[in-house]
UniProtKB/TrEMBL annotation:
<protein>
    <submittedName>
        <fullName>ABC transporter ATP-binding protein</fullName>
    </submittedName>
</protein>
<dbReference type="InterPro" id="IPR027417">
    <property type="entry name" value="P-loop_NTPase"/>
</dbReference>
<dbReference type="Pfam" id="PF00005">
    <property type="entry name" value="ABC_tran"/>
</dbReference>
<keyword id="KW-0547">Nucleotide-binding</keyword>
<dbReference type="GO" id="GO:0005886">
    <property type="term" value="C:plasma membrane"/>
</dbReference>
<dbReference type="Pfam" id="PF12399">
    <property type="entry name" value="BCA_ABC_TP_C"/>
</dbReference>
<keyword id="KW-0067">ATP-binding</keyword>
<dbReference type="InterPro" id="IPR051120">
    <property type="entry name" value="ABC_AA/LPS_Transport"/>
</dbReference>
<feature type="domain" description="ABC transporter">
    <location>
        <begin position="8"/>
        <end position="249"/>
    </location>
</feature>
<keyword id="KW-0813">Transport</keyword>
<dbReference type="InterPro" id="IPR032823">
    <property type="entry name" value="BCA_ABC_TP_C"/>
</dbReference>
<dbReference type="InterPro" id="IPR003439">
    <property type="entry name" value="ABC_transporter-like_ATP-bd"/>
</dbReference>
<dbReference type="GO" id="GO:0016887">
    <property type="term" value="F:ATP hydrolysis activity"/>
</dbReference>
<dbReference type="InterPro" id="IPR003593">
    <property type="entry name" value="AAA+_ATPase"/>
</dbReference>
<dbReference type="GO" id="GO:0005524">
    <property type="term" value="F:ATP binding"/>
</dbReference>
<dbReference type="InterPro" id="IPR017871">
    <property type="entry name" value="ABC_transporter-like_CS"/>
</dbReference>
Length: 249
């Protein structure tokens, strides 16, 4: 595969916290349009890896490429303008505002960062916000104050807020965490539907193996900061480490 096949590549990504190698020499490639899961036991370094990719955490060594452009060391908001955003950074949700206001805020911030102008055509903006809410399936909740939302709908809102940044690649750190089993499938259906409708790529951490088997097209396994394996669900199912760690084999 040529390099252009990949929307995201990491080369030898490493993060040391003191003497701990939280992420140890990780090189992964994510093809355009893929649903990619990253799995591994607690403390494997999955969240740290995502934060290195999005440049939220300064790296100790290595490089990150987004659409073949090196983004190592670039500020997270610039990376968002380049097409990669991470979901579920709770700080971006204003719980005393409505669903509509939250998504509008995200749109305004995104446009300001991208073009250094505030969008003034509020009617146009309103339509854009509603379009995102319809896409996510929460248009009927537009005027609801966020703190009154169910947990599942809050997660949906967070996806809507991230979508307002128009990412080509969305990173999701345990999208189904804390959500009831049935609701977690609804959420993952939504993630896959967005991937299909908007030609996106989805890179998600997940600990629920039923979700992983059902939604991942490729699975990357980490342990103790290190790369263990990457492959199709079928390949990973037969991996020795995965057998021992997850399947009791
Ligand atoms: P995972 O998401 O796979 O559960 P993390 O990436 O959160 O794992 O953590 C990997 C390791 O790095 C863990 O041992 C964790 O305690 C450690 N770690 C994570 N963040 C920090 C930090 N800010 N300072 C020190 N150690 C950290
Ligand atoms: Mg984590």
């Amino acid at each position: 595969m040529s390099e252009q096949t990949y929307i995201l590549r990491t080369e030898n990504l490493t993060k040391n916290f003191g003497s701990l190698k939280a992420v140890d020499d990780i090189s992964i490639q994510v093809p355009y349009g893929q649903m990619r899961a990253v799995i591994g036991p607690n403390g494997a370094g999955k969240s740290t890896l995502m934060n290195l990719i999005i440049q939220k955490t300064p790296l100790s060594a290595g490089k990150v490429f987004l659409m073949d452009k090196e983004i190592t060391g670039i500020p997270t908001h610039t990376i968002s303008n380049l097409g990669m955003s991470k979901c579920f950074q709770i700080t971006q949700v204003f719980t005393s505002l409505t669903v509509f206001e939250n998504v509008r805020m995200s749109l305004i911030v995104d446009r300001k960062k991208a073009y250094n102008v505030l969008p003034v055509a509020s009617k146009y903006l309103r339509e854009e916000v509603m379009e995102i809410l319809r896409l996510i399936g929460i248009a009927d909740l537009a005027d609801e104050v966020v703190k009154n939302l169910s947990y599942g709908d809050q997660r949906r809102l967070e996806i809507a807020i991230t979508l307002a940044k128009r990412p080509k690649l969305m990173i999701l750190d345990e999208p189904a965490a804390g959500v009831a089993r049935k609701e977690s499938y609804v959420l993952m259906d939504l993630v896959r539907e967005l991937r299909d409708k908007l030609n996106m790529t989805m890179l998600f951490i997940e600990h629920d193996m039923d979700i992983v088997w059902n939604y991942a097209e490729e699975i990357t396994v980490m342990n103790l900061g290190q790369f263990v394996a990457s492959g199709t669900p079928e390949e990973i199912r037969h991996n020795d480490f995965v057998q021992k760690a997850y399947l009791g084999g």
